[in-house]
């Protein structure tokens, strides 16, 4: 275990390196921070931190920089989440309050996160599997053609065309709409198949084929893989950190183009807690020089999706964690009120 003083030295090194982009020396540390000890003692502490793998010497200069292991300890033990100022919180609320629908909410969230953190922002659309049904609308487009509109509690809207085996009248369609909603509104998507299993049998014989077709389309909509949608923004921010990537930012950009990689980065949406993955903790090789800060958001206590940022390991962790958490909280509030 590191002594309190050495933990303080590590904290000072991380803060200075993130702020100045320059390797940090013992003399600079004693001048900038009230460590209460001589530069010689700080040098000894830095040597011990280096032996333990928390800091490294990038080249022959006297300065040291944090390693992935050093950042990990900083995040786990030394970094509090930096609260946003009142003007920042007000700006977030005003910007997100103007959203007109779910796509707009996600789009605004991506832009806002990228601006606040000056990193790459990634926002996952609310997952259908963790949503509940708000309403099912059935609209007649032709005698044997119906539009099915599924609206979720998170404001997500899915539309499907249904070609029916026989014409269905407005009265029968209204009856199906009413009976369907009475069974599924407010219920979790996972429960819907069981809730509508015997619904077709309650209709007269000539309507059963059409009812079964509509229900089949509804169930397909619930399980479609296309639900895992993402929006990404602020990729240009990476160009400001060119020197933070050992060779080139190209592997990072290529990794960010792969949706599967991004979904794995954000992690399981059911986990609503803050996740910080640093450097080589990211399984994808192209992202070994980056850190990911992600958190779940939702309209209630349970997360329905994740949002977060990707940036160089040399990032302002307390500020980034504070911004990500605050934005997630506001998005959750908007979904709850929508």
Q: What do you see in this structure?
A:
The protein has 338 residues and is α+β, with helices and mostly antiparallel strands. Helix content is 44%, strand content 17%. The protein contains 12 helices and 10 strands. Strands 7-3-10-9-8 form a 5-stranded antiparallel sheet, sandwiched between helices. Strands 4-5-6 form a 3-stranded antiparallel sheet. A two-stranded antiparallel ribbon has the order 1-2. Strand 1 (55-56) and strand 2 (65-66) form a beta hairpin. The radius of gyration is 26 Å and the shape is elongated. The two termini are 49 Å apart. The model has no long low-confidence stretch (mean pLDDT 86).
**Rg calculated over all Cα atoms:** 26 Å
CA distance, first residue to last residue: 49 Å
Strand percentage lies at 15-25%
- N-to-C order of helices and strands: HHHEEHHHEEEEHHHEHHEEEH
Mean pLDDT: 86
Class computed from helices, strands and strand pairing:
alpha+beta
Strand order of the largest sheet: 7-3-10-9-8
- Residue windows where pLDDT falls under 50 for at least 5 positions: none
Q: Can you count the helices? A: 12
Report the helical percentage: 40-55%
Q: Major beta sheet, specifics? A: 5 strands, antiparallel
Find the count of extended strands (DSSP E, 2+ residues): 10
Shape: elongated
Keywords:
alpha+beta, five-stranded antiparallel beta sheet, 44% helix
Short précis:
Helices cover 44% and strands 17% of the residues.
Topology at a glance:
Blueprint: H1 4-20, H2 26-32, H3 39-51, E1 55-56, E2 65-66, H4 68-78, H5 86-97, H6 102-117, E3 120-124, E4 133-142, E5 145-152, E6 157-163, H7 170-184, H8 192-195, H9 205-223, E7 230-233, H10 250-256, H11 259-266, E8 275-278, E9 290-297, E10 305-312, H12 317-337
Antiparallel strand pairs: 1-2, 3-7, 3-10, 4-5, 5-6, 8-9, 9-10
């Amino acid at each position: 275990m590191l002594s309190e003083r050495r933990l303080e030295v590590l904290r000072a090194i991380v803060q200075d390196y993130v702020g100045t982009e320059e390797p940090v020396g013992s003399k600079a540390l004693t001048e900038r921070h009230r460590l209460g000890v001589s530069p010689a003692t700080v040098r000894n502490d830095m040597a011990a931190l280096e032996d333990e793998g928390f800091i490294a010497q990038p080249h022959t200069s006297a300065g040291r920089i944090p390693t992935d292991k050093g950042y990990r300890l900083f995040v786990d033990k030394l970094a509090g989440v930096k609260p946003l100022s009142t003007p920042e919180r007000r700006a977030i609320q005003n910007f997100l309050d103007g959203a007109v629908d779910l796509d707009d909410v996600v789009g605004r969230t991506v832009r806002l996160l990228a601006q606040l953190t000056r990193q790459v922002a990634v926002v996952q659309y609310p997952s259908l599997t963790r949503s509940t049904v708000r309403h099912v609308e059935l609209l007649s487009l032709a005698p044997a053609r119906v539009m099915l509109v599924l609206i979720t509690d998170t404001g997500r809207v899915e539309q499907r065309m249904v070609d029916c085996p026989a014409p269905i009248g407005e009265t029968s369609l209204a009856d199906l709409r009413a009976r369907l909603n009475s069974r599924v509104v407010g219920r979790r998507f996972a429960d819907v198949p069981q809730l509508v299993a015997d619904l077709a049998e309650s209709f007269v014989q000539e309507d059963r084929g059409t009812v079964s077709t509509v229900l089949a389309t509804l169930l397909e909509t619930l399980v479609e893989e296309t639900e895992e949608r993402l929006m990404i923004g602020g990729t240009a921010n990476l160009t400001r950190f060119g020197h933070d990537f050992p060779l080139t930012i190209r592997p990072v950009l290529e990794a960010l183009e792969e949706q599967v990689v991004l979904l794995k980065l954000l992690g399981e949406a059911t986990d609503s807690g803050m996740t910080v993955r640093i450097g080589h903790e990211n399984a994808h090789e192209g992202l070994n020089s980056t850190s990911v800060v992600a958190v779940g958001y939702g309209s209630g206590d349970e997360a329905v999706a994740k949002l977060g940022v990707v940036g160089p390991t040399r990032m302002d962790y307390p500020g980034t964690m504070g911004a990500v958490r605050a934005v997630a909280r506001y998005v959750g509030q908007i979904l709850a009120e929508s």
